[in-house]
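quick one if you have a minute, typing this from the bus. theres a chain ive been looking at and ive put its sequence and its fold in token form underneath. please have a look and point out which stretches look like helix strand or loop to you. anything you notice is useful, everything is just below.

***
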Amino acid sequence: MRKKKVDEIQDDDILQFVALRIHEKKFAVEISHIKEIIRFQKASALPKIPEFIDGVIDLRGEIIPIIDLRKRFSAPVKYELATRILIARAKGKTIGMVADEASEVLSITTNSIKPAPAITKYYKAEYIIGMITYGKSIYVILDVDRLLTEEERISIEEIAVG
């Protein structure tokens, strides 16, 4: 199926998101960014990288930098049986994102997406697209392409190349 351009999306179009949990908060990532979800594995640490980057893993011969979303969002880091790594594409690069759990796929109509509240501006949460209510839960939609600053992206590219 061809991915729609933003100007082609209608109010009643259905988008799919992967639901994930970080500590006690629920997040969602558009499924088109996710390549696969794997069980947690310890990353090989590297020197001089931002604290929220755990290091790299070798996934079938590809070296992938691992971002711990728990550290990125200042949440406690506790490894559980449900801890997962979401292998994703962010601005053309493959990254891994650690979450406490990746639980299900949510199918949401575009008119169900609400803008993020103004308070998120105070937390420098430029990577928040909006929010959705699914069942009795509220999910924060993350923009995978904006999870990293340009400087952080360059650091990761150096990791992946080096």
In short: Confidence is low (pLDDT under 50) at residues 1-9. The radius of gyration is 16 Å.
